[in-house]
């Protein structure tokens, strides 16, 4: 689709692009900003928050004060470990659905998240690029996946 961008390293095969929901275009290209939680700039978790709230009606806590950067890797690892047990249910690989979160390792640390938007596809952003769609089963991302999780509705 015109206007749909992806990171060069994680090329999305054309047949998969056809499965991207139209609403995703509203998020692709949002600028990366550490600690960002709105459309003026988002980090990986801020992007997930926007999608969960606007597209899935989920009021996931913003966890203000947690900045998803490598410099904070120990804090983020502990945070993810605690939050997964507290408010998120693990989802078996292959059973993930749109709206589920993917927790991934970046630069050796469990500090990156993306949101599943369609089978095999995630919406995410990180310090090397703005919000984009990528195939999480690609060589670049599959080896980094630590798990899929679904927010437990209150």
First-to-last CA distance: 36 Å
- Total beta strand runs: 8
Tell me the strand order in the biggest sheet: 3-8-4-5-6-7
What general outline do the C-alpha atoms trace? Answer: globular
* Unreliable runs: 6-10
- Average pLDDT rating: 81
Strand content: 25-35%
Output the structural class.
Answer: alpha+beta
Helix content: 10-25%
- Rg over CA atoms, rounded to whole Å, is 14 Å
Sheet having the most strands: 6 strands, antiparallel
What is the overall number of helices?
Answer: 4
**How do the helices and strands follow one another from N- to C-terminus?**
HEEHHEEEEEHE
Descriptive report:
The protein is α+β, with helices and mostly antiparallel strands and 154 residues long. The chain has helices at residues 14-17, 44-56, 73-87, 139-142, and strands at 37-38, 41-42, 88-91, 101-106, 109-118, 121-126, 129-135, 145-151. Strands 3-8-4-5-6-7 form a 6-stranded antiparallel sheet, with helices on one face. A two-stranded antiparallel ribbon has the order 1-2. Strand 4 and strand 5 form a beta hairpin. It starts with 13 loop residues before the first helix and ends with a strand.
């Amino acid at each position: 689709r015109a206007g749909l961008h992806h990171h060069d390293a994680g090329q999305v095969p054309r047949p998969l692009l056809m499965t991207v929901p139209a609403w995703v275009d509203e998020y692709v290209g949002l600028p990366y900003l550490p600690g960002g939680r709105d459309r003026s700039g988002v980090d990986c978790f801020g992007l997930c928050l926007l999608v969960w709230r606007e597209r899935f009606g989920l009021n996931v806590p913003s966890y203000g004060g947690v900045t998803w950067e490598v410099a904070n890797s120990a804090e983020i690892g502990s945070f993810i470990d605690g939050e997964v047990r507290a408010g998120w249910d693990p989802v078996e690989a292959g059973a993930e659905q749109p709206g589920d979160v993917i927790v991934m390792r970046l630069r050796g640390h469990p500090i990156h998240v993306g949101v599943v938007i369609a089978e095999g596809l995630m919406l995410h952003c990180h310090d090397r690029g703005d919000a984009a769609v990528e195939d999480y089963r690609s060589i670049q991302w599959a080896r980094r996946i630590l798990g899929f999780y679904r927010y437990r509705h209150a």
